[in-house]
Amino acid sequence: MPSARAPYHIPNPQVVKTEKILDIERNRAIISLATVEIKDRERRSRRSMRATKVREVTLLEQAIFSGRFREAERVAEEISPTDLRSAAAKAQVLIYKGELEEAGELLNAFEKRLAEANLKEAAEFGLAKAEWHYWRGEYEEAKRQAQVVFGIYSLNRDHFGLARALYVLGRVYRRQGDYEQARQEMLRALEEAEAVADQPTTFLLGLITFNLGVVHYFLGDLARAEEELLAAIRALEVERGRYYGNALNFYGTLLIGKGLYEEAARIIQTAYECLAESAFFDDLAHATNNLAYACIRMGQFERAARLLEESLELRRRSKDIAGESATLELFGRLRFEQGQLSEAEAVLRQAIELAELGKNPHEKAVAAITLGRVLMAQGRLEESQRLLEEALDLALQLKNKSLQAESHVYLAELWVHRGNGMQALEHLRRTKALVNGYRDAYLFAQIERIERLVQQQRIKAEEGIFMIRSSFLPTWREAHEQLGRFLLQEALRHAGENQTKAAELLGVTKAYITMLRKKYGI
Fold it and tell me: At the top level of CATH, which class does the domain 21-138 belong to?
């Protein structure tokens, strides 16, 4: 039987690669290396872009925190927000520029990402939202946002974040007319800002000091207010925009209170020009109001009317209800000064309605005082008293000394007209106690005018009659002086200006008559 054939076998066969196969393999290796390199480059590029984005946002935040808003505007133009931090920073710039609608759209677009944000991002976004609500006049919502931010920054005692949250809260209370609460929040903000070690704080300190100056002005501490406003102007000069203009404007308000109307008008005009560069309607209206008030005090009624028309238009464009109330109050004051009482009354009643609608007790009290004066001039004393007492109650609630003093001084005038000098003197006494330590030129002029009215009612010495009204009892010194003058004038009249005969009528010497004439200038 034939043996089986062994299978055919080629040991260790050599695979022969053609040149084409070799090219393909080389290309694959090159492609693989290129792919790895491209991916590496992409990763480095993304890291670089993220780093660049972070640097840009950091630069933007630093510019905002330092008050360099022109620089901030340029940086913001190059940023397309991709996260909460960049959205918040860009929104702050838009808010500063007064572009509230655009800022609102940006904030609303990113709000849904809050659930995924870390606490720092959420806090900065919350501050931007608080600012947005504040400038829209939505004070309760601004307060709520600021309180949430304060809570977040309290977790790690971030002094810079706490100072900014308290600063927003203080401004809200100030705009709502709660000056004592505003003062407390601003003092806390100042304490936190002074504790910051890792951020520039000169600008923030300037903002806080400015608001403290405003609050102390409304609380009647004018000396402290002036000191703080001047310090704020120096600190905010780096910005030379919205906040610097506002500080100048309010310093002008203080100068009006001191009776320096021409200097005040010059300062406020500078503030107006500074604010007009960026068309901040709300701030421009404030400056226009103050300039109009200075014009009223200087008797420039036509210019004041033009300015108030401009202010009213600005208020309505910015939908500032409380601000519109303030402008209408000034319109009412202007018409009162011009003697147009019916028109003044109509405008002031509208001002009170808007103040109530805007929930601003300060503006309501101011308008109520002016309307009380208008009604007093019309002889409607009961209505006038009701309004002035309501204004006094509001001023007491607000702890506003200047408004309390104004209410008391015009209540004193009202009681003169109602024939009760003792009540008038009591209100004048309270007015003087409230204004002790600072000087409001216009208010002091009103005190002096009403004191003369009281004096005229206390002692009547004319046509041979010397009469003292029991409801207007003079002091012993006043009665003695007035009686001496009256007796000397009557004796000389009866004696035909003969001093010897006059002395005989009064039972004194001629030398005494000569001394009395010199004393009384008769």
Answer: mainly alpha
